């Protein structure tokens, strides 16, 4: 009986010493360590994949890279099934350089080279005669369209490079501010934030508080006597002040950024030219609203606006603008405003009288030693409430005068039990004082003796708005 030896076992012959080593995958092989199999979606049963370029003599990926251009040869293309035109066929959009005009075949190597850092490095190290060098670079992102310049047609002399796109968030908030309650305005303008604060956050909070104070000032303007009724002049009755302020062409002279944004937000349909003081390094580039064009104003002894005659319906000078000019320059400012205003155009100039009302001895001493000395050292006007109306008449403007017309009084400080309206009044007055007199280093409400005296006497500063009509 034959012996049961179980299943036959076949012994494999031992490898001879002369047999060549196993061939290592080349750099173009989809299963190499350089290109793993999961990186190629075509490595499945639906496609018959073959590498497009390979080196016939290379046994290592690095050798294929360093080979001469003639050692690369084309093998065959990628074959896809009938549904190769489906949306998930990512290789169907490739075109060989020599067949770009007629062929729509795909290449996995080209697409993967654009997304793989290692493949990009290899393709860059190949000689310049490689076929991959003929591939067109990826398309560049389209350039941003330039913002529209709606001021160029109306004012050809105004530069359009400073016109920026609108920012709808903050202007919309400014337009809603007058509808809020008095308590809300007082809280937002006087609230204290928890320290410490970053410098950027501190500036943003201060900027928003200033916008709330400017809203309160505009509401107080509308409550003044005669602000909503026509004003009679030698040329006949003119429009009410608020109607004049809603002009289509407005000149803004050296106002603060918050004042400019507040004006542009309340009058989005107006075209505003903003004159800013130029510095030694040049004009400060600030983000401007979409309806504002910025101009540089050189603070020379003779003030001259880079604008044409009769090109504006309304000119506005805030306390910050008054404080930016010396006494001789204020006369030139008024003459230039009269020149650029059209017939029946209006000048609106707001200023703070540096001499307070109902002041005591300590307050008078502070005015003489701090405020007036600081103004005289920079040749500023020490009596603007008296001199500006005289200079405006000399410039050819007709002033609109009436009892209480354009006049505000703001208390220096209030006590602990003050109402919301009284706290807002103090904050608005202090803002205007700091804007017109930035050269003052210490204020009387910061000194205990002056503060107690101002509380006892109800010391106030007068803010006057001069309205001049070009007849």
Automatic annotation (TrEMBL):
Extent of the signal sequence: none
Region (Disordered) location: 1-172
Compositionally biased residues, Pro residues: 136-148
Superkingdom of origin: Eukaryota
Compositional bias (Polar residues): 116-131
Low complexity compositional bias, start-end: 25-37
Coiled-coil regions listed: none
Biased composition annotated in UniProt, kind: Basic and acidic residues: 1-12, 74-87
Protein name: Methyltransferase type 11 domain-containing protein
Protein's organism: Immersiella caudata
